[in-house]
Specification:
The protein contains ten helices and six strands; from the N terminus they run βαβαβαβαβαβααααα. Helix content is 52%, strand content 15%. Pfam families: GerE, Response_reg. Keywords: DNA-binding, Phosphoprotein.
Length: 201
């Protein structure tokens, strides 16, 4: 029996996925959570074979949670489930050492099959997404620039970002100016749009 935890913030979607997966004779949902911060505690408590994680979760996203799981409970394999088939997201997922990455609009049988394959040690990636990622351009932003832009995208102003990252306000503004220039954006809002479309945030 493959023990699975499921992280999805939309109650109806989570309920449907749990119901579908519980129909599989060899898959058992041992826990379901709705927020990224709840994933690692659930993994440590229930010791699942596979954690199926939505990429967009409140607080901590599925990729950050997957990295935590890999660091603290490497025996648990992670499968990212997303409605956002962006190449940059796949690259971030691979950097977080996830075992699988499939789209939410895949047939239910494909999800069950992906869970089985991931549990057996395979890496499962949506083939079209893999091709798109191969052709996509690399993220030109440094890790710090990406972090600053992500905070700005969440609505934080330069003084807030400076305080949280122990930087000066001027340094934060310099980072944002550099980001706008590197992405060929018109302004900060346009830079956020470009980075999101590419899956870099």
């Amino acid at each position: 029996m493959i023990r699975v935890i499921l992280a999805e913030d939309m109650h109806m979607v989570r309920g449907a996925l749990v119901a579908l997966l519980n129909l599989e004779p060899d898959i058992q949902i041992v826990a379901e959570v709705g927020a990224g911060r709840d994933i690692l505690p659930a993994v440590l408590l229930h010791e699942p074979h596979v954690a199926v994680l939505d990429i967009d979760l409140p607080g901590m996203d599925g990729l950050a949670a997957a990295a935590e799981v890999h660091a603290k409970q490497p025996a648990c394999r992670t499968l990212i489930l997303t409605g956002l088939g962006r190449p940059g997201n796949l690259r971030r997922a691979l950097e977080a050492q996830v075992s699988g990455f499939i789209l939410k609009d895949a047939p239910p049988s494909q999800l069950a099959d992906a869970i089985r394959r991931v549990a057996s040690g395979e890496r499962v990636i949506d083939p079209q997404l893999a091709l798109d990622a191969w052709a996509a351009r690399d993220n030109p932003l440094t890790a710090r620039e990406t972090e600053v832009l992500r905070m700005a995208a969440d609505g934080a102003e330069a003084p807030d970002i400076a305080a949280r990252l122990y930087l000066t306000v001027g340094t934060v503004r310099n980072y944002l100016t550099t980001v706008v220039t590197k992405l060929g954006a018109r302004n900060r809002v346009d830079a956020i749009r470009i980075a999101r479309e590419q899956g870099w945030l």
